[in-house]
Every structure is written in C-alpha cells, then in structure tokens.
C-alpha cells in the first residue's frame, strides 16, 4: 500500500514542556487527518562570508506513518547534514529568561516534489531529504508522484516561491522508522543546510501553508550576521513580527555555538537578532528579506513584496501609489513640454501672466 | 453544366445552408458549452446560470499543480461527499475528478430549476473557498 505523506514546513522546534508546545521551525505541520497543529517553532539562519547556514529541526511526535515537509531555499545547498546538538537550545537560552532554559530542541520539516529535478539526496536519521529544482507545477507533480498530498493553498504558495528561487528541500519524516530507531516522542533531528547566496532570506509565508486565514502562527527566527541587519518587512509588531532581541552576540554564545558539530564557521564577532512571529496565516503573506551587508537595502523581491522582473507588486496599495506617482510625473512632463512649445509660438500664451 | 450536375450542386449548397442554419439556429442552443477554470484552488467563474432542460457541456480546466474535484448538486449530495470515501470520481456526469494540469468534459442536463452548488471535496478545499453556485432557471 502506498503511504500518503503530507507537506509541512521546515522548522526547528523548541519545546518547553512536552505537554505544552512542540515546535516547528518556520513551518506548519499537517497531520494525516488533515488537521493542522499549530506549533511554536525556532529556526536559525546564520550568514557569514557569503554562506547562509540554515538550521531547523524535526521532532518525532509519536504515532506512525510518514510526514513530509517542504522548505523553499534561496539557492542550491552545497551540503545538508545533521545539525549540531545544542545550537538551537543555546540560542534560546541566550535570549529568554532563566526559567525557560530547560528547553529541548525539536522540529519538523517536510516536503516532496514531483517531476522536478532531483539535485541531491540525503539521509539523516529518520529523514529522507531531497533537494529539488523546479517550478510550482513540477514540484506539485513530483510531490504527487512521491505520495505527498498538498493542501489547497499549495499552488499559490509554490508559485510565490518558485518565481524567485526554484530550489526546494523536501524532507520525508518516517515516524515508523523513527520508532524502530528507538526515538522517543520529543526527540528531534536537527538539519544544517549550507547555502551560498549573496543575501540570506528566511521563508515565512511557507509557515502558513495548509492553514486557514485566521489560524495563528507562532515561531522564533534567530539571525546571526556580521553586522546589524536591515530587515524587510521591518518588525513592527503590527505586521506580526517583533524584534525581541537585537544586540551584538556575546563571546560565550559564539564560543558555545562554534564548539557544536558543523558550527566551525561561526565568526569571533557577530550580531544576533531574534524575530518572534505571532501572526495570522492570512497576515503572513511575505518572507523575511535580510541585508546583511550593512547597506540597509533588503530586497523587496526576496521579501515577496514584489514579483521578479519588475512585475506587479503584491501590495495593491503600493501599486496604486506607484501608478499615481507615474501618472503625476508624466502629466507634469507633458505640461512642461506644452509650456515650452507654447512659449515658442507667437500668439500662444500658456498663462495670463506670462 | 449538365442538369444533373446543377441539381447535385443545388442539393449540396442546400444541405450546407441547412446545416449552417441548424448549427446557428438550433444546434447551438441544444448543447451549450461552459468552461470552468481552476486556478489557485478556486473556481472561475464562481457563479453560473443555466436553463433547465438544456444540455450543458462543462469543460473543466485544472490549471493547478494539484488534483481537484468538481461535484455539482444540492446540499444533501455535498453532505454525503464531505464524509465520503471515494478516492476519485468520473462515472457520474455531475461528479468529476480533474487531475493536476488536466481538462475534463462532462455533459449534464438539469431537469429542474433551483439553486445548486459545485464544490471540491478533497480535504480542506471547500473550506479554502473552492465552491461555486449554479442557478438553474425555468
């Protein structure tokens, strides 16, 4: 019998209490019954020397069967490996009160793809990970061919990402295999994705996949950059994003992170930001663009606020504003031209006072 | 031209004219074609009006990368499908499965006036807004 897998989002999870909230990093989880579990999640995106290190975790939540998770990526990863043992927990300890220090990492991820091009495959514990390249239709076909069932908003969300970067990471989590491996409920497998990219961005809209518009999305995103980053959208609270921590990373944190598996890249000096997400699925219609260069110019395209190629903006208000400006400029130009032409023609006086 | 030839030509022209008149005046009314596009898990158009007794050829175009259903009927039928277990449809004209990127045609004649709805009953699709209304006029 063919197993049915479901897409969820990549995410690292932080669980304060087992009974409280399992967390997904940057993603939502769609269970076999179609229900969506809203989870508090944690993700880490570090950027240094032109390389984005994206770390998320998949948590074994019990039960059987298989789940899938799909993560859009800004570029083709050069490596996907088992993440470190304490990086996510250590980040949470750095930015949260002492009573929250007993945190366990957990995460979930997902995905599948269709007749898309399979660039690479990895096996990490009970996770089967495939790096895919393809448009929304190709990813959808691949997903179906591999037994994944996509939620109804998938066509639009996949288009949203594929128009900017046709790279996706599909992770199939086999709960049966996890149980056979002796993994207990709450045990997480963190995944470290290494992606060369001119500028990092963090997929946020994917967190709303499979959720209705009113459902809440809660997640934590940790950013580590060489300089204080410029973010788009800028966290304002009103847009569902809040800048909960924004300071130079402590020496002890950097040393602790650097001592974890695969974290040798952590520099000796860095800036740490924590963005907390508390938004409705409908509200979270964008990604988080980051300008880590210090220039202060995060990309509207990477934020998903503008379509690549100068196409229509996702914001009707912005589009209308630009249209009005353009009409005004053209109108002013025509008026000036008319005045110049008219002033050079005898008998034509553009104004009474001229 | 021989007389027989003229007669044959006249008959031919007459048949062509009759065919054209039939097609335009009668045939076009007998079967009406209605296209329904599926994009981002929504039906377009979301509202349709047809006449009772008229045969309708529905052409359903699935532009999405995922499979969909188009099931038209009254509320009782939809209630059955909300808890149904059929993995796919196609044997009944009013119940169709349209695979990703595929086109399906189905012929339906609605006998009675009334208000019907067309819905995709795959999990989560109706709640996402994948439904439309079909008014059958007398």
What are the key terms here?
heterodimer, A: 354 residues, alpha+beta, 4-stranded antiparallel β-sheet, 6 helices, 33% strand, disordered N terminus, disordered C terminus, B: 138 residues, 5-stranded mixed β-sheet, 4-stranded mixed β-sheet, 9 strands, globular
Write a short abstract of this structure.
The complex is a heterodimer of chains A (354) and B (138). Chain A is of the alpha+beta class and 354 residues long.
Q: Mind explaining what this structure looks like?
A:
- Chain A has helices at 87-95, 136-145, 154-162, 175-180, 251-258, 316-343, and strands at 5-6, 11-15, 29-30, 36-37, 41-48, 51-59, 66-73, 79-82, 104-108, 117-124, 127-133, 148-149, 167-174, 188-196, 201-202, 216-225, 230-232, 241-248, 271-280, 288-291.
- With 354 residues, chain A is an alpha+beta fold.
- Chain A has two domains: 5-291, no CATH class; 315-354, no CATH class.
- In chain A, α2 (136-145) crosses α3.
- The longest helix of chain A has 28 residues, at 316-343.
- Chain B has 138 residues and is an alpha+beta fold.
- Chain B contains two helices and nine strands; from the N terminus they run αβββββαββββ.
- In chain B, the strands form two sheets. In chain B, strands 3-9-8-5-6 form a five-stranded mixed sheet, covered by helices on one side.
- In chain B, a hairpin with a 2-residue loop joins β1 and β2.
- Chain B is globular, with a radius of gyration of 20 Å.
